[in-house]
Amino acid sequence: MHTTLAAINREVTQLNNLQTLLSSNEAILHKAMRDADNVMEDAKHRKVPGVDEVLVAPTVVAGQLYELVADERSLEECRAVVGKALDRGRIGGDVWAKQTRSLAREEFLKKALIKKIAMGMGLVEEQRWE
To answer: Which one, of 61, 76, 75, 70, lies nearest residue 123 by Cα?
Structure first.
């Protein structure tokens, strides 16, 4: 009977410790929820920043990289548009060839500079042309 009473007392102590731990965790959770609600309420009253204000390069070189990637993607899109214009008969084959060659040359130079900057920033591990 004494061993049973001791086992029950141990279980009661463990349950009390668990209750204390759960109460502490619940208090922490409620505080975090209040903080989150305050942040969300504060965010509702703020002006939404523009994309250009949020997307700012951390360094001058990273800014150049952003610009080069945007230029390279726009050149790729231009080549696609020139191809569609040829398909629709709006430009001739000679104009298509001249414009595609010019755009591709410029795109290649942009890609080469992107690779060079990426290697200099440590973003690319090996020099491999794809």
So the answer is: 61
Main-chain phi, psi angles of 124, to 5 degrees: -120, 130
Could you tell me if 107 and 128 are in contact, meaning their C-beta atoms sit under 8 angstroms apart?
no
How many CA atoms lie less than 13 Å away from 56 in the CB half-sphere?
A: 5
Question: pLDDT tens digits for 67-124?
Answer: 999 999 999 999 999 999 999 999 999 999 999 999 999 999 999 999 999 988 888 7
Check: CB of residue 80 under 8 Å from CB of residue 107.
no
Describe the crossing of helices 60-87 and 93-120 by its angle, rounded to 10 degrees: 160
Residues 6 or more apart whose Cβ sits within 8 Å of residue 3: none
**Euclidean distance between CA atoms 66 and 73, whole angstroms:** 11
18-38: b (≥16 Cβ within 10 Å) or e: eeeeeeeeeeeeeeeeeeeee
What's the half-sphere exposure (Cβ side, CA atoms, 13 Å) at 4?
A: 1
- Other Cβ atoms within 10 Å of 68 Cβ, number: 19
